Amino acid sequence: MPTVADRVAQTVVAAYLAERVEQVFHPDSFGYRPGKSALDAVRVCRERCWRFDWVVEFDIRKFFEPFRGTRS
Q: Are 48 and 55 in contact (CB under 8 A)?
């Protein structure tokens, strides 16, 4: 069971890391970021659907499969 000290330490580390990694994220990255949600991603997608007349299709199942690279 986490103690109060553990939770304080986790909060401090999370805040420290969030400041540094937030700069690396692409503005269109919505996952696991403070102040951004799945609904925000849907809103942006809907706005862009009306603005652009082209479509990009992805098979997102491949994004969730384990990497099967070749071993040397």
A: no
Which tens digits make up the pLDDT trace of 43-65?
Answer: 988 888 888 887 777 777 777 77
C-beta separation of 42 from 30 below 8 A: no
Whole-angstrom distance, CA of residue 34 vs CA of residue 8: 18
For 1-56, what is each residue's pLDDT tens digit? Answer: 779 999 999 999 988 988 888 888 888 888 778 888 889 988 988 888 888 887 77
Distances in whole angstroms, Cα of residue 69 to Cα of each of 63, 64, 65, 66:
14, 15, 12, 9
Which residue has 């690279």 as its token pair?
69
| This model's pTM is above 0.70 | no
- Between CA 41 and CA 27 the distance in angstroms is 11
